[in-house]
Write a structure and sequence with these properties.
The complex is a heterodimer.
Chain A (H helix, E strand, L loop, with lengths): L3 E2 L10 H7 L16 H20 L7 E4 L2 H15 L6 E5 L4 H12 L3 E5 L9 H7 L4 E5 L13 H11 L2 E5 L11 H4 L3 E5 L10 E5 L25 H38 L5 E2 L10 E5 L5 H10 L2 E2 L15 H7 L9 E5 L6 H24 L1
Parallel strand pairs in A: 1-11, 3-4, 3-5, 5-6, 6-7
Antiparallel strand pairs in A: 2-8, 7-8, 9-10, 10-12
Helix pairs in contact in A: 1-8, 2-8, 3-4, 8-11
Chain B lengths: L1 E2 L10 H13 L9 H21 L6 E4 L2 H15 L6 E5 L4 H12 L3 E5 L9 H7 L4 E7 L11 H8 L6 E5 L18 E5 L10 E5 L25 H37 L4 E3 L10 E6 L4 H10 L2 E2 L15 H7 L3 H4 L1 E5 L6 H25 L1
Parallel strand pairs in B: 1-11, 3-4, 3-5, 5-6, 6-7
Antiparallel strand pairs in B: 2-8, 7-8, 9-10, 10-12
C-alpha cells in the first residue's frame, strides 16, 4: 500500500519476522490444540508457554501472572469488571479517570449499572491526573483504581508509580492500561506498583486478536468467560496459538529495539514539527510535552476543522486520526481533549492525533508537513470567510 | 501424519491462510479508523459478513464476530440471562454440553439463576419431551448443542426450536461449534435465536468465531468498549482472522456438499470394524450422529496409554473434549450417557475432516490391533 501511515496508535503493521514465527502454527506443521495430550498438543502448549515467558520477562512478571486474552479491550474488561465483582463484599467504590480508553470507561459504566459507584478523576490542561485528586477521591470502600499508563490520544503519561505507591497501604487493587506505553516506554510491574496491567499485540507490530493481562499473584478476579481449564480458568477457550506465538515474537523484537524505536519516534516527531515550523503552519501542541509517549502527538490547528482535515489528508495519502479508533468509525469530539480544555474549547474540534512507528521515515514527515500546510491554509481561508 | 483430532482443532485451509496473511500484512488499518486504510479494511469486514450471511441465509446484522466458541457460548447464555433477568430466572440446558456452556450455567446458578440439566438416553440424546416438561413460567433460555463434541450425537434442536416457537418468552441458543459445515441447521426456519460457531473447527484460524443473534434478540455484552459489532462485542476487530473465517466457512460448506456421503460411509465402516473387537463399545449412535466423530470405549485400557502409543506411530487422536482433557477423570458426557461405569472412563475419540479417507483409518485399525492386546497383556501380568 502506498501512502503515509501515521496512525500507529490505532493499529500497527505486522512485522515480517512475526509472521514467519506464526506460520508453522498455521499451515499444519504444528496443528495441535494445546489441551490435547498427543504430541501436537504438547508442541502447541510449549509454544504458548514460551510466549508467556517472553511477555512476562518484558514486564518483570513471572509467567504464571500472565493471562492471554483476545486483546486490550478484553483485558481491560477482565481486569475492571473481574476485580470489582470479586471484591464486591469488601466495597463498592471504583476510581478511574476522565481520559481513559473506552474499553475502561465503558467497563466502568457497566459497573455503575451493577450498582458500583465510580469516581472519574479530572485531568489538568496537560492531560495528567494529579496525585492529590486521587487521594481526595480515595475512600475506605474503594476496591479498585484504574488509571492508564500512556494516553492513546495525547500520549500523556500518568504518574502510575506514584499512584501505586499511595495505594500500597490502602489495599485497593490497581490496574493500568499499558496498551499504548508498552511499545515505547519501559514497563515494569514492580516499578509501577500495579496489580493488573493490560497489553495488546496489534499495537506493537504483532497480530490482531491477542492481548494479555498481568494478574499479580494472589489477585482474585471473576472471569468474564467460563468453560475449560485454559489460562488458569481466568480465560477459557482454545488458546489462539499462532497469535500468541506472534505476540511472543513481537515482544522479543520490542525488548531488543525498544529504546531504538523510542528514539526513532522522537526523531520523526521532531522532524515533522520542524517542517511544520519551516512551512510557517500555525499550530499548538495539546497536553504535556515533557511527560508524554514518544510516538503520539495531538496537535491543534487553529481555524480548521478536524473532520475535513482528516478527509483531505486521507485524499493526499496521509492517514492520521482524530483520536481513538475505537469509537467505531464515527466522529465524536474527543472526550480526552474535552476533559483537558472543557467542552467548549475550539481546540477539541480542530485537533488531530499523529502517531508514528514501524515503516515511517524522515521524508514522510516532510511530505506530511507540506500536505498539512497546504490543507490547513485552504481551510483557514474558507472557514475564515464564513 | 494421521491427524484424527479434528474436533479439537483443524488445520487451516491453505486458502484461508493466504487470505489471513494477505490481510494481516497488506491491510493493516483499523476498521474503525476514518482514513483510507480504515475504509479498505471496513470494506473487507463487510464482504466477509455478507458472504457468511448469504450461506446461512440470514441478515448481515445478525452476525457478531467473537474470539471463538467459548466466548460465543458465554455471550449468548450470560447475555440472555442478564438481559432477561426481569422476566424470569430459569434456564434449561443438557447434561452433555461443552464446558463453556456447563460452566457458564454453573456460574449463573451462583448468581441466583436456576438451571435444569436435561438427561440423555443411552444413545447420548435428549428427548423433545424432556424439554417440553422442563419449560415453565419464568424460563428465559434453552441452550442445547447441535452435535455433541465427544460422541457426535445429533440433538433434536430443530424440533426443540419448532416447539419453542410457541413460547415467545423463551430464547433458544444452539451451540453449533461441532455441527457447523458437517450437519446442516436451518437457522432461518428452525426457531433458533442464537447460534455459536468457532472458526478453528472448520479450518479457519484459532481466535475467531461468530455468534448468530436473531434480529430483535437483546443481549447484555460481556465486553464493553469502543462499540464494535453493534455494541455486542467491543475491541479492534481481528480482521485477518474474520476474512479467513469467511473463506474457510465457504470452502468447508462446499466440501460438505461434495463429500458428506463419503465421510458418513467412512464413519460407518470404522464403526463396523471397531464393533467386531472384544471389549470395544461404540458410544456414537450409528444413526443420528455427525459424519466426523466416532467415540469408542475400549474396556480394560486407559485411553491416555492408547493415545500415547498411537502418537508414537504418528496417529493423533484424543479422549474427551480438549477443553477438559487435562483433568484425570471420567468424561462427563459418557457418564451422562452410561452412568459412572468403566465405559465412561475409557472413551477414545476419532474425529475426521473432509480429507480423511481409508488410508487414514486402515493404519488406525492396524495400530489398535497391535497396541490394545499388548496393553491388556501387560495389565494381566501385573495383576
Amino acid at each position: 500500500m502506498t501512502g503515509i501511515y501515521l496512525d500507529h496508535a490505532a493499529t500497527t503493521p505486522v512485522r515480517p519476522e512475526v509472521w514467519e514465527r506464526m506460520k508453522p502454527y498455521l499451515d499444519g506443521t504444528f496443528p495441535g490444540n494445546p489441551s490435547s495430550i498427543h504430541r501436537y498438543g504438547r508442541q502447541a502448549r510449549q509454544a504458548v508457554d514460551a510466549a508467556r515467558v517472553a511477555v512476562a520477562e518484558s514486564i518483570g512478571a513471572s509467567s504464571e501472572e500472565i493471562v492471554f486474552t483476545s486483546g486490550g479491550t478484553e483485558s481491560d474488561n477482565l481486569a475492571i469488571t473481574g476485580a470489582a465483582r470479586a471484591r464486591r463484599h469488601e466495597g463498592n467504590h471504583v476510581i478511574s479517570t476522565k481520559t481513559e480508553h473506552h474499553a475502561v470507561l465503558h467497563a466502568c459504566a457497566q459497573l455503575e449499572r451493577e450498582g458500583f459507584e465510580v469516581t472519574y478523576l479530572p485531568v489538568t490542561a496537560d492531560g495528567i491526573v494529579r496525585l492529590e485528586s486521587l487521594l481526595d477521591a480515595l475512600r475506605e470502600d474503594t476496591i479498585l483504581v484504574t488509571v492508564m499508563h500512556g494516553n492513546n490520544e495525547t500520549g500523556a503519561i500518568q504518574p502510575i508509580a506514584d499512584i501505586g505507591d499511595q495505594l500500597r497501604e490502602h489495599g485497593a487493587f490497581f490496574h493500568t492500561d499499558a496498551v499504548q506505553s508498552f511499545g515505547t516506554l519501559s514497563v515494569d510491574v514492580a516499578e509501577l506498583n500495579v496489580d493488573l496491567l493490560t497489553g495488546s499485540a496489534h499495537k506493537i507490530n504483532g497480530p490482531k486478536g491477542a492481548g494479555f493481562l498481568y494478574v499479580k499473584k494472589d489477585t482474585t478476579l471473576h472471569p468474564l468467560v467460563f468453560g475449560g481449564e485454559q489460562e488458569r480458568r481466568l480465560r477459557p477457550g482454545t488458546e489462539n496459538v499462532p497469535a500468541i506465538v506472534g505476540f511472543g515474537e513481537a515482544v522479543q523484537l520490542l525488548q531488543k529495539e525498544k529504546e531504538e524505536r523510542a528514539q526513532a519516534c522522537k526523531r520523526f516527531i521532531h522532524r515533522l514539527l520542524t517542517a511544520l515550523d519551516a512551512e510557517k503552519v500555525p499550530y499548538e501542541m495539546n497536553g504535556s510535552q515533557e511527560q508524554k509517549l514518544p510516538h503520539i502527538i495531538n496537535v491543534h490547528f487553529p481555524g480548521t476543522q478536524t473532520e475535513p482535515l482528516l478527509a483531505q489528508l486521507d485524499l493526499e495519502g496521509v492517514a492520521v486520526s482524530s483520536g481513538s479508533a475505537c469509537t467505531a468509525g464515527s466522529f465524536q469530539p474527543s472526550h480526552v481533549l474535552a476533559a483537558m480544555y472543557g467542552e467548549n474549547d475550539p481546540r477539541i474540534r480542530s485537533s488531530i492525533r499523529i502517531s508514528v512507528g514501524y515503516g515511517n521515515n524522515e521524508a514522510q514527515m516532510d511530505e506530511t508537513a507540506k500536505q498539512i500546510a497546504k490543507i490547513t491554509k485552504k481551510q483557514r481561508k474558507v472557514l475564515g470567510q464564513k | 501424519m494421521i491427524y484424527l483430532d479434528n474436533s479439537a482443532t483443524t488445520v487451516p485451509y491453505p486458502e484461508a491462510l493466504d487470505t489471513y496473511q494477505k490481510v494481516a500484512t497488506r491491510y493493516f488499518g483499523n476498521p474503525s479508523s476514518l482514513h483510507d486504510y480504515g475504509s479498505e479494511t471496513e470494506h473487507l469486514l463487510r464482504q466477509a459478513r455478507q458472504s457468511i450471511a448469504d450461506i446461512l441465509e440470514i441478515k448481515t446484522n445478525e452476525i457478531t464476530f467473537t474470539s471463538g466458541g467459548t466466548e460465543g457460548n458465554n455471550l449468548a447464555i450470560k447475555g440472555v440471562a442478564f438481559a432477561r433477568r426481569h422476566r424470569g430466572n430459569h434456564i434449561i440446558t443438557s447434561a452433555i454440553e461443552h464446558p463453556s456452556v456447563l460452566e457458564t450455567c454453573r456460574y449463573l446458578e451462583k448468581q441466583g439463576f436456576e438451571v435444569t440439566y436435561l438427561p440423555v438416553d443411552h444413545k447420548g440424546c435428549i428427548s423433545l419431551q424432556s424439554v417440553k416438561d422442563a419449560c415453565r413460567e419464568g424460563t428465559i433460555l434453552v441452550s442445547i448443542m447441535h452435535v455433541n463434541h465427544e460422541t457426535g450425537a445429533i440433538q433434536p434442536v430443530e424440533e426443540v426450536g419448532e416447539c419453542l416457537k410457541y413460547h415467545e418468552k423463551i430464547r433458544f441458543h444452539v451451540d453449533h461449534v461441532q455441527g457447523a459445515t458437517k450437519v446442516p441447521l436451518d437457522l432461518k426456519n428452525s426457531g433458533v435465536d442464537l447460534c455459536t460457531f468457532s472458526g478453528h473447527k472448520f479450518h479457519g484460524l484459532k481466535g475467531t468465531g461468530m455468534l448468530y443473534v436473531r434480529e430483535g434478540v437483546q443481549l447484555d455484552p460481556l465486553i464493553h468498549g469502543g462499540g464494535q459489532e453493534q455494541n455486542l462485542r467491543s475491541g479492534t476487530e481481528n480482521l485477518p482472522g474474520i476474512v479467513a473465517l469467511a473463506k474457510a466457512f465457504r470452502l468447508s460448506n462446499q466440501n460438505y456438499s461434495k463429500a458428506k456421503n463419503d465421510l458418513a460411509a467412512l464413519k460407518t465402516e470404522l464403526i463396523q470394524e471397531l464393533q467386531q473387537r472384544e471389549g470395544f463399545h461404540i458410544n456414537t449412535p450409528e444413526n443420528s450422529s455427525a459424519p466426523h466423530i466416532i467415540n469408542v470405549s475400549i474396556l480394560g485400557v486407559r485411553p491416555e496409554i492408547v493415545i500415547q502409543a498411537l502418537t508414537k506411530k504418528n496417529i493423533h487422536v484424543s479422549s474427551k473434549s480438549a477443553c477438559s482433557s487435562r483433568l484425570q477423570s471420567a468424561s462427563e458426557v459418557l457418564v451422562a450417557q452410561h452412568g459412572p461405569k468403566e465405559r465412561a472412563e475409557t472413551g477414545l475419540r476419532f474425529s475426521f475432516d473432509y480429507d480423511t479417507d481409508k488410508s487414514d483409518i486402515d493404519p488406525l485399525i492396524e495400530a489398535l490391533d497391535e497396541i490394545v492386546p499388548n496393553i491388556r497383556k501387560i495389565k494381566e501380568v501385573k495383576s
